[in-house]
Structures are given as C-alpha cells and as structure tokens.
Amino acid sequence: MNHRPQLRAIMLVALLAAGLSPAAAASDAGPHRPEDLSLLHQGEIIVGSGFLRTEIASTDDGKLFLAGSSGPSEDRAILVYAVDPQLRSADRIASVPTAWFGAEPIFRLLGAGSELALFYQSPDGSGGEVLHLVRWNSHGEQRARSLVLSLPADVTGPSGESLSGFGVAWLDGMFLLCTAGPGDRLTLRKLTPEGVVLEERVLDGFFEGAFEAGLALGLAPDRKIVYYSARDGESWVLKAAELDAHDNPQAVYQFENDDRQQKMPSGSLVHKDLYFVTYVSTPRWEEPGAPERSDAYLQVMDRRMEVWADFKVGERGQLPARPTLARVGDRIFVSWLSAPASPAEEAYARIEAYELKLAPPAGGSSRAR
User: Fold this and answer.
1) Phi, psi at residue 150, to the nearest 5°?
2) C-beta of residue 78 within 8 angstroms of C-beta of residue 105
3) Cα separation, 149 vs 169, whole angstroms
4) Is residue 250, in this structure, part of any structural domain at all?
5) Considering the chain, what percentage of its residues have pLDDT values greater than 70?
6) Distances 332 to 36, 139, 328, 350 between C-alpha atoms, Å
7) pLDDT tier at 101 (50, 70, 90 boundaries)?
8) What is the rounded distance in angstroms from the CA atom of residue 78 to the CA atom of residue 98?
9) Residue 160 lies in a domain
10) Coil, strand, or helix at residue 35?
11) How would you class 18 by CB atoms within 10 Å of its CB: exposed for 0-12, middle for 13-18, buried for 19 or more?
12) Rounded to whole angstroms, how far apart are CA atoms 225 and 223?
C-alpha cells in the first residue's frame, strides 16, 4: 500500500529574534518535494497480549526491539522482545519487574548506539516518583541498571514536576531527558550512558498555556525538536518547539486539523532530513454516547516543518494508544496498542512496517541522498 502525502496547512506561531528565520529555514529544505516521498506498507506483526503500553526502538547495528507492559496488578512487569526486522518473529529476551501509578506504566525504550535502553518510572513508597535505567547489548545481555532521578512527593503531582509524560533521546553519546511541570515549565537534563545527570536546564513558560502529558524529542546533529500537544480553543493540536544551541526555544510550529485532535506525541526520529512523529488522533466532535475512538497517526515533515504526509497507521487503538516508531535502514516501523474486539479479549501490540523512498528530485541525479 502506497501512502501518498496528504498536505495540510502549517502555521509558524513564534520566532524569537535570535532564532531561525523563515527564509533561512527555506534555504535548508533541499531539492526534494512532497510528491517525491512514498511510504510503502511492507507488512505487520502482532506481539504479545494484555499490554497497557508499548514502545519500539532500534539500535545502530540494525536490531529491532519492542517493550510492552504486562501482568496483573500484583505481578506487573515490562517485557522486552527482539523483533525480526522482516516481521517474521518476535522473541522475549527480558522481563523487568516494576510497579507504577494509576492505570498505565510509564516507560520509554530507545536505542543508545549499539545498546538498548529502557527508562521506567516507579513509586518510591512515600508519594514520590523514581526513574530507573536498564541497558542491554543488542543480544539481550544486561549491561547496567541504575537509578536516574528521585522526585520526592513535595515536588511531584499535578502542581509539580512529573515523569508521567517524559521524553528521552540519544545523541552524541549522551541521553537527553525532558520532563514537564510544575506549571508550564520544561526541564532538560543531559545524562551519561550510566544515567548520571551532567547538566540541568529549566525553561519556565515553555508551554504557554494548557498542555497534555506526552513529550517526544526529535534530534539531529544540528537540531533539537520537542513535540507536545497543547490546547487551542476547544481542541488539542500538535506543536513542535525548536531549541537553539543553548536549549532556548527559538521557533514554535503548530499543526492544524479541522476534524481531528492531535494528542500524546510519543515517537519521533529524523532520517534523510525528514522529521517523523507519531501521535494519537481523536475526533474533534463526538456523537453523544458514541464509544471513544483513538487512532494512531504518523506525520512526516521537511526541515522547514512543512507537512509532507499525515496518515492513519491504525484505528480503534486501545486508549491511550501512544504509537512509537523506529528505523532500520530505510524501513520505518510504527508500534501501537490495538484495542480488543470484545471485552473477552486483551489489547496487543501491532507493528507496521513501511519502506521509505524518495524519488530523484526534478532535474537531479538518481543517486540516493
């Protein structure tokens, strides 16, 4: 199946004086156009069952992994699977016993060079939150386990800093961790591969109003993008904040849709100068008494943050679906939580694979970028 790009309007909300100007952004867009992009559906696989949340990730040596939460309340764990990139099999390689607040576990899975990293939250027993890190090599052998952050009860909760929607990414041999709160504050922390905090940067007023827990980081060697969902009137919209070299916001982009809300951006990556982000889409207007819908979407943008593609990967997701994505070569993998067809069934992880192709630009050579 070939998903043709569906273009939408994008509005530049704010550019600070020291930031990137629209003209400068346009000069970096490259020779390609939206019609040069195609994402060809390559297949799918179903992994596990009874999950409350899933995450997909890849390592630099081309290995693909999935993590999913499973187990009853007295035996909760995060299960890690090695997934064949051809989607022929998925084998469980690790189980991390844990506990979590509320209805769903909070964790993020990502590649860290040739290693796999899992960050997960747990209660500290006195109302506070703790963030842990586990690392494995690409063969599933555990390399390290450490405590990253401990947030006591007096600084967490609805009015404090929270790990409920944290984002994390890997760049230049370090982790970059972002958390939200209190209020409209964003906190960025640079961590060593062992999870030791090297630097902390607090950005007050970052969100400029109501926002929803759920952060994703898109990192390129010369660029940092923070994706989040914010309230715009009566609807939720997707936003992307670009940070400068000192981690100050220099541009905020807002993505508009007349019929759908854009919520919980959870996965992002950068490849071939294109920016990918996955999010949850819900109808802007619901019929009274209608069942709540949650669809998984993938959006692709160029360097100017102009939308090249925005399409539904899966429908009728288990709330919250929180789709994430990973890349192996030119194949893009999206994982999302599929809702059961009946109350007697359990939610399961579905992985969809797409092959990314860029046609030669008009008047250009056929050499791959």
Assistant:
1) -130, 115
2) yes
3) 16
4) yes
5) 78
6) 17, 21, 7, 14
7) low
8) 7
9) yes
10) helix
11) exposed
12) 7
Compute the mean pLDDT over every residue in the chain, rounded to the nearest whole number.
81
Residue 359's beta-bridge partner residues?
none
Rounded Cα distance between 203 and 180, Å, is 10
Other CB atoms within 10 A of residue 27 CB: 11
User: SS3 for 340?
Assistant: coil
Mode of pairing for the β-strands spanning 307-314 and 324-328:
unpaired
In angstroms, rounded to a whole number, what is the distance separating the alpha carbons of residues 12 and 339?
35
| CA–CA gap between residue 362 and residue 333 (Å, rounded) | 28
Query: Cβ neighbours of residue 365 under 8 Å, at least 6 residues apart?
Result: none
Number of H helices, E strands in the chain: 1, 26
Q: How many residues does the chain have?
A: 369
Q: Which residues constitute the domain of residue 99?
A: 2-358
Mean pLDDT check: name the lowest of 150-159, 214-223, 254-263, 305-314.
150-159
Q: In which region does residue 183 sit, left (phi positive, over 0), alpha (psi from -120 to 50) or beta (all else)? A: left
Nearest alpha carbon to residue 28 among 312, 289, 301: 301
Residues 349, 47 contacting (CB under 8 angstroms): yes
364 is a domain residue: no
Left, alpha or beta for 339 (phi > 0: left; psi -120 to 50: alpha)?
beta
What the block records as the tokens of 271 is 């490849």
Classify each residue of 339-359 as buried b or exposed e, where b means 16 or more C-beta atoms within 10 Å of its C-beta: beeeeeeebbbbbbbbebebe
Number of domains present in the structure of the chain: 1
232 is a domain residue: yes
β-sheet with 162-171: strand ranges across: 162-171, 174-180, 186-191, 197-203
Half-sphere exposure of 112 (CA within 13 A, CB side): 25
CA distance 104 to 26: 41
Q: Is the pLDDT of residue 368 over 50?
A: no
Q: What is the CATH number of the domain that holds 72?
A: 2.120.10.80
Nearest Cα neighbor of 211 from 247, 183, 176, 242 is 183
Between vectors from CA 224 to CA 82 and to CA 242, what angle results, nearest 5°?
135
CA angle 272, 273, 275 (to 5 degrees): 105
pLDDT in tens, 255-278: 978 788 888 899 999 999 999 999
